[in-house]
Amino acid sequence: MTAQRAAIHTKTRPGLIALKVADLDAQIHFYQEALGMRPHWRDGKRAGLGAGGADLLVLSKHPGYRRYERIAGLYHFALLYPSQRELARAVTRLFSLRYRNYPTDHVMTKTTYLEDPEGNGIELYAESPEDGSFAIENGGFVTRRTDGSLSSGREALDLEALFAHLQPGDDPAALMAAEVRLGHIHLHVSHLDEAVDFYERVIGFDLKGVSHPLQAAFLSAGGYHHHIGLNTWQGAGAPIPPADALGLHFFSIELPGEQALRDTAERISASGAVFQESEGGIRLSDPSGHQVYLTTRKN
Question: What is the pLDDT of residues 7-20, one digit of tens each?
């Protein structure tokens, strides 16, 4: 791997996710009720929500837009919780609302999956590296527990063990923990190798693993298991989202300072990729039509 490909700052991480929605009021209600997000601001057909600090989610209303199938786009965005205790509170909240979700044990993380009312995929997770690790080896996903035994990495989560982290007085109806942040973005892409090249060579993330048999790849900064997930599970050659597609609008990648942003902009320019300066950062599109906004961290 060349120095250019490993050059993104190690403290780089995802910032926020922006979604195009059909019913803004209903979506705001869902994210407040089901996930406990705080409303940060609203300006006509746009709104920002999060955990009380910088926005984690920006919603914009697009009447007449619709959802398409078998196209590139968002697979899910993942909210990282500061502890299994906070994840347990979030899962308890979903259960109390009888909102369908799928608690899953990835060994190195504990997680649950759900969709918002318009079909946008969401993952809620907490780190559990003490339980094991995950890697792509010889073209396959390999999940090892700390005792050396193998796991599918997709086992049902032990809810009794998760809920054991709760303490007396923990209120599932309380607002989302202030430490919650965007942990990773997972995308349906048109062509796997092309997408890997963009996020590795152009943006500068480190490639953690790619599996052509499983049609998936993972990239990150600073040794993290993944900040970007890619797959062609909508079919190789899946079309770029049409202009009137609901779903992913853009997502941001936050660098820790102006110098790190300038270094990344220089690398992108040297790669020949086209970008635009915008609102204190730069914007560009990946080969599958996903809009990426590179900026500096707000807090």
Answer: 799 999 999 999 99
